[in-house]
Amino acid sequence: MSKNNIKHENVFAVFVIAAILAMAAISATAILPNGLLYAQEEDAQEFTTELSGEAEVPSVETEASGDATFELNSAGDQMTYTIDVENIDRVLYAHIHQGSSDENGDIVVTLFNPSSPTAEVSGELANGTITASSLEGPLQGKQMSDLIGLINNGTAYVNVHTEENPPGELRGTIEEGGS
Asked: Which residues make beta-bridge pairs with 29?
């Protein structure tokens, strides 16, 4: 094989690799109507829970209900959340706790901490973003992956505390999946 053939084969191989990389880059972007390119993020992870008094330990009789949704960004370092409730009054706090569904556990993230108890709430109670600096209790100083590990193991739950039920009026174990 001559040196010219080897050069041409190497050049061809470089062009093939460049074309593959260009196609991969194009597939990870979209052209918006305004002509700008937008890089698409990998899928974010979604987590949800339904909140009820029945899930409390011990269970609580209440007319209140709710749900919480969480979305972990593709980098795995931020999780946004929203807590929606119905017919709940005098909320003191909302947290993520570490523990299985049949036990009460330590607080690992504060989700809602008003300066005074709320009035009756039917709608959004709280929303925000969780990062590693939000972690507390047994997760203080740890990473978001540690919180995700608790969720994936079924040992992270949301608890909404009220004046009437300070240990918790609404509770639900966080699970992977969209609502």
From this structure: 39
Would you kindly state where each structural domain of the chain is located, as residue ranges? 3-39, 45-176
Cα separation values, 122 from 85, 114, 119, 170, Å: 5, 16, 10, 13
Full-model pTM: 0.76
pLDDT in tens, 117-166: 999 999 999 999 999 999 999 999 999 999 999 999 999 999 999 999 99
As a CATH number, domain 45-176 is: 2.60.40
- Tell me: the pLDDT tens digits for 6-22? 555 665 555 555 555 55
